Amino acid sequence: MIDELRQYTFSVEAWEQYWELFTSMCMPIRGNDFGQLRGLWYDRIGDTVSFRHVWRYESLDARTHLRAELIKIDDWREKFLPQAAQHVSQQFLQVLIPKLDEGEAGLAAARYLHSYRCPTGKAASVIQQIGGVKGEARKRLCGLWGTEFSDPNQVVAMTSTEEAPVLTLSAAVAIETRRLQPLGLEQPSSDFRA
């Protein structure tokens, strides 16, 4: 099983237009027929909006097959993609290997994304430490992944609170934390204004 974390960057105005396209065109075409949507989040820093969503697939081959089937749909290829592309400033995706069975409710509680940049060969130790947290720290942990692409030395965790799971490694691990606002597909674009 794999998850795909997709991140798009927009200006505030472009984001509002993209979100309308996403809810009115992308999801009606795509639904969960071409991967299972696990969660949607956004964050805004100044005039820049980042939109993240996680999709689950049985395998990398299944993802490739489903994406190939999706591109065959005329409305996707000829309507959604051309309109959506003009709003996106930047696109980045990662293939993630789930290391925690968080269930549907787990990701729904996610409010923070922690990216651990590990020295070569240390990602497995970080995953083991984070996956082994107990008590309140375990309750706050919503998702945990090793990264297959683009950086195999990265670990991604989602939590319900700002505290990143604590590590006791001798090697330096850089942690970047982003606050996430969960999204519902019924949410109007006016909700995103400052």
Short summary of the structure?
The chain has 194 residues and is α+β, with helices and mostly antiparallel strands.
Describe the structure.
- By secondary structure, the chain is an alpha+beta fold.
- 33% of the residues lie in helices and 35% in strands.
- It folds into two domains: 95 residues, Alpha-Beta Plaits, CATH 3.30.70; 82 residues, 2-Layer Sandwich (Alpha-Beta Plaits).
- The chain is built from six helices and nine strands; from the N terminus they run E-H-E-E-H-H-E-H-E-H-H-E-E-E-E.
- It has a nine-stranded antiparallel β-sheet with strand order 8-5-7-6-4-1-3-2-9.
- A hairpin with a 4-residue loop joins strand 6 and strand 7.
Give the spatial strand order of the biggest sheet. 8-5-7-6-4-1-3-2-9
- Could you say how many structural domains there are in total? 2
- Uncertain segments are none
Q: End-to-end span in angstroms?
A: 38 Å
Return the CATH topology of the largest domain: Alpha-Beta Plaits
Report on the biggest sheet.
9 strands, antiparallel
* Average pLDDT score: 89
> In one word, what is the shape?
globular
Name its key features:
194 residues, alpha+beta, Alpha-Beta Plaits, 2 domains, nine-stranded antiparallel β-sheet, 9 strands, globular
Spell out the blueprint of helices and strands:
Layout (H helix, E strand, L loop, with lengths): L1 E10 H19 L5 E10 L2 E10 L2 H12 L2 H12 L4 E9 L4 H6 L3 E6 L5 H9 L3 H6 E9 L4 E6 L14 E6 L1 E2 L12
Helix pairs in contact: 1-3
